[in-house]
């Protein structure tokens, strides 16, 4: 189905987009990057050209071979071996957070007290962001998430746009400065390995480093935090599923995570640009046409998922597209977030067995992130 783009004063309007909503077509598009290109941007409508000039290109918006070069350099930090090495650190962070929750008293806001600090802490540790810059990273990533949302007035949208651009510029500069420091004095972190030549002699330029680290924090903090928060909400709303999970945590948690990601779909959509004439469901697409791939809808496709609206932690197979589909852009952080969710729920249910979400969560008003801005909990 085609959607035109409304004209907004002061902003460039694009030529609209075709919505692809079923599992089969979404998966086919993700697996066919020669026709469904991520370049110039997976955001539809695309950001203005000056944004690329200032921020550089991140790999999510590139096709091979440029994408492949960046992904190869970066993927070394995400191998199962590296992630296993992180297990201890993630567990230690989770327990420090739970200590603070216990000291604080019998409840609070799960997003700001648990999910966000864990998601942000893990990525900042991995990247090598010093403690003193972390609240700034979290603040700017929140402004970005807010920016993907819907604003009630034109002026407030513009104000938020300016605030977001400044915030993202500040983030990029911070990463570039850290890169320069680590070139002089390498440490045991991702920035050091990205700016110093690795075994293939490949390394990132300052611009690429800034763009990549900004992508990492924007792609990795809110999505993971929302996965954890929606996870607690769902396990509270479905006590029989929670009981089943706790009856054999090690056995059920892997499928529970996939079901949380399917059911919630923290990143609801992505976009692609058509490179050559192609047909989808009888609709002829021409070079330059934009398509939006709706993960959220594909994940509830009743031809693939039996009872798609049922939250079932034993669902297996579960070929959801919450992390994208197997292909060149499959989520780089999928195994990391699986680890974060396993650790936090294991430690929470162990140390605070009565923990549960209470009241109505506050939803982020966004057509991109299925996010919560507040989730009250008690234990
Ligand atoms: C539940 C949490 C998460 C969800 C639902 C999610 C979802 C996704 C999806 C759907 C894509 C594909 C986008 C596209 O094809 O246009 C993607 C790509 C990506 N994700 Fe995630 N993500 C999550 C967590 C993370 C984390 C924790 C990190 C970082 C540590 C991360 C880093 C990335 C990166 C770098 C890409 C781009 C990969 C590429 O273009 O090759 N994600 N993610």
Question: Which descriptors apply to this entry?
Answer:
globular, 12 strands, 3-stranded antiparallel beta sheet, 5-stranded mixed beta sheet, 10% strand, alpha+beta, binds protoporphyrin IX containing FE, Cytochrome p450, 13 helices, 379 residues
Overview of the molecule:
This protein has 379 residues and is of the alpha+beta class. The protein has one domain: Orthogonal Bundle (Cytochrome p450). It is built from 13 helices and twelve strands. The strands form four sheets. A five-stranded mixed beta sheet has the order 1-2-8-5-3. Helix 9 crosses helix 11. The N and C termini lie far apart (46 Å). The mean pLDDT is 91. It binds protoporphyrin IX containing FE (HEM).
**The CATH class:** Mainly Alpha
Q: Structural class, please?
A: alpha+beta
Number of helices: 13
CATH fold-type name: Cytochrome p450
